[in-house]
Amino acid sequence: MNYPRFPDWLIYFAATGAILVAAVSRQEHTDTPEPPPPGAERVPLGPDSPFDPATVIRTGVNRGQHRGAAFAVAEGGVWLTARSEVHGCERLALKVAEGRAVGAHLAEGGDGAIAVLRTQGGPPPLVIATGLEPRDGVRAFLIGFPKGAPGEASVMRMTTSELPRESRAQPAIPVQVWAETGRTTAMPGPLTGLVGAPVVGADHQVVGLVLRQEARHARFYSTGAAALNAAVRAANASPAPPAPAETATVENYGRVADDLRRSRQVAQVLCLVR
């Protein structure tokens, strides 16, 4: 009996997909403990605050709408976030303590998917990777504010793809595709609020920025590091040089995430009500 011969490319992609699915399923679901309560997570701004006191804003109940996350990428208050999180907002701010935020404005730089924000002063920046993109099967960690609260997710890179164009005039956006392998305990359902969050590799360097979540299939889509470096250069800023840092693992990524939020290197984006 003659069996049909499948194309080599089809066999290759089927085998690759099977390996990745097996790798994800073989890994234990690496959840993290719940983060500290808000009072401990966002310590009050003290006299050593890196922000200009004149730009600090009081935020009471219903004063601001949560708009995902942003992270510091250069000295002096240069931040990156997803453009979708700031679109249509007339008064932006970054939440940096309980009941406190600092005014932010949309700056030059970025592209159709990435937005650059500036504040008066800011924390030490995160380091953006400059080498090759992560390989398929590599672990990374998303650090932000899912459901408006501190939280994080562990992910594994699956492949690369492109986000659909919103119009023919817009170029396609190349993205990395990540499969969720763990999350903050007691956060069921879609992790809304992780858009704009950094994708942090094991070496503590940022390898992407979350652009979209596909909750049904537990997938996240992010930029690559090259697009982030291009956005920093376009904003006439100098990226942070590499520095020794604690390795992020499936055992400690919850604590690493808490530290980055506590240092305000990752902050919550707010759209303030006038």
What do you see in this structure?
There is one protein chain. The strands form 2 sheets. This protein has a 6-stranded antiparallel barrel with strand order 2-3-6-5-4-13. A 6-stranded antiparallel β-barrel has the order 7-8-9-12-11-10. Mean pLDDT is 84; it is low at 8-27 and 38-42. It contains 4 helices and 13 strands. It has a domain at 8-37 and 127-227: Beta Barrel (Thrombin, subunit H), CATH 2.40.10.10. The chain is globular and about 45 Å long. The protein is of the alpha+beta class. The protein has helices at residues 8-26, 38-41, 225-234, 253-262, and strands at residues 56-58, 64-74, 78-82, 92-97, 100-107, 114-118, 139-144, 151-163, 173-183, 198-200, 206-214, 219-222, 266-272.
State the CATH architecture of the domain at 8-37 and 127-227: Beta Barrel
Order of helices and strands: HHEEEEEEEEEEEEHHE
Largest beta-sheet characterization = 6 strands, antiparallel, barrel
Percent in strands:
25-35%
Category from helices, strands and their pairing:
alpha+beta
CATH topological fold name of the domain at 8-37 and 127-227: Thrombin, subunit H
Main β-sheet, spatial strand arrangement = 2-3-6-5-4-13
Give the proportion of residues in helices: 10-25%
Mean of the pLDDT scores? 84
Low-pLDDT stretches are 8-27, 38-42
Helix count from the secondary structure assignment: 4
Number of strands: 13
* Overall body shape: globular
Which features characterize this protein?
single chain; 274 residues; alpha+beta; Thrombin, subunit H; six-stranded antiparallel β-barrel; 4 helices
Concise summary:
This protein is α+β, with helices and mostly antiparallel strands and 274 residues long. Helix content is 16%, strand content 33%. The protein has a domain at 8-37 and 127-227: Beta Barrel (Thrombin, subunit H), CATH 2.40.10.
